[in-house]
Amino acid sequence: MITINIEKKLKAYSGQQWLKVNREFATGSIIKIYGPSGAGKTTFLKIIAGLVSTEKGSINVDDVTWLDTSTKTTLSPQKRMTGFVFQNYALFPNMTVREHLEYATKDAKWIDRLLTIGKLETLTTHKPEHLSGGQQQRLAILRALAIKPKLLLMDEPFSALDHEMKMVLINELKVLFQKLGLTVLIVTHNPQELDGLCNGELEIDTV
Amino acid sequence: MPLVLPPSVLGFYLLLAFSPQHGVGKWLHDSFDIQFVFSFQGLVLASVIYSMPFMIGPIKSALQQLPASLSQASYTLGKSERETFLRVLLPNIKPSLFTAMVLTFAHTLGEFGVVLMIGGNIPNVTRVASIAVYDSVENMDYSAANTYSLILFCITFVMVIGVFIFNKTQAKSPLE
């Protein structure tokens, strides 16, 4: 069970606005997050991962307190170990496909399985600059999965994929998520694309 | 400060600081038998202090140009700040690092004021090429001055061309 109750002040053109979320997510649930641009969807994911601080709130994951501003408790991103798929992929330009996964895990069998799932087995020696947008996006997803996180946070993870590849990957991931018992939060601009994958949703709007 | 101070002023203060008669210089001399004034070691130390900003500036700028998401991605994989710096950030500023190293070396090669102040002009000990040029002109030995100048010119020219070619082929941002 993941319990999130946070409040963060956001800067916007129209002045200040608040990101307020108070929700519980069951372990193993796959939640799509949507809302207007600038509402703080990415910030919400980064707060959970420990990459952005917040003024007020708490995050508890399976009885472990990741964040509690009242007691000034905060776990570092390294200790939270959330799988995070960045909107801009955040791939390391100096590393090949395989090196990305080896940087995240030493489990060679798991790396091979991920490469098969992402259909990148023939591109293991390629660096990101020699991959297409879709291949880069798949690599970003595989890298996040490589650490076998309990919680996977995905920021528009399928935006660069064509429809066919998107459906194939979503079906593969759905099985994988269930097998790993992952809780997944997915930010999307197109909620319909995740209809077959998600079993819950969260709308984030400005306050 | 080394960036804006006249080299002779920096050299003068270093000369005072490392003087074996008092302060740090005396302590180094008495405790470890190290003398930085009028020695090659002192000359290297002064050059490092003087040229450090020329190295740090471009490297700092290159690091700032890397997207924050690179280090963030590394942190979420459980990697420490040190490991992230060594395995993600540093390799991705390699072209800037190389350019900064070469240009700083070339800059140090031609240094005059600081080197003359702290090293003096002791033949075979602290007489560097740029001082040798000045010395030769002072002694009306234009032939020697020309030889030294030509050598310095060639080394610097090769370095600049090298950096130019490297930048053309390698130094484009790895994020492009």
Short description:
The complex is a heterodimer of chains A (207) and B (176). Chain A is α/β, with parallel strands linked by helices and 207 residues long. Chain A has helices spanning 41-49, 77-80, 97-104, 108-117, 133-146, 163-180, and strands at residues 2-12, 15-25, 30-34, 56-61, 64-68, 73-74, 83-85, 151-155, 183-187, 200-203.
Plain-language structure description:
The complex is a heterodimer of chains A (207) and B (176). Chain A has a single domain, classed as Rossmann fold. Chain A is 30% helix and 28% strand. Chain A has 6 helices and 10 strands, in the order βββαβββαβαααβαββ. In chain A, strands 2-1-4-5-6 form a 5-stranded antiparallel sheet, with no helix packed on it. In chain A, helix 3 runs parallel beside helix 5. The mean pLDDT of chain A is 90. By secondary structure, chain B is mainly α. Chain B has one domain: MetI-like (MetI-like fold, Orthogonal Bundle). Chain B is flat and about 65 Å long. The interface between A and B is medium-sized, with 26 and 20 residues.
Topology:
The complex is a heterodimer of chains A (207) and B (176).
Chain A: E1 2-12, E2 15-25, E3 30-34, H1 41-49, E4 56-61, E5 64-68, E6 73-74, H2 77-80, E7 83-85, H3 97-104, H4 108-117, H5 133-146, E8 151-155, H6 163-180, E9 183-187, E10 200-203
Parallel strand pairs in A: 3-9, 3-10, 7-8, 8-9
Antiparallel strand pairs in A: 1-2, 1-4, 4-5, 5-6
Helix pairs in contact in A: 3-5, 4-5
Chain B: H1 7-17, H2 23-32, H3 40-65, H4 68-76, H5 81-89, H6 94-109, H7 113-119, H8 129-138, H9 142-169
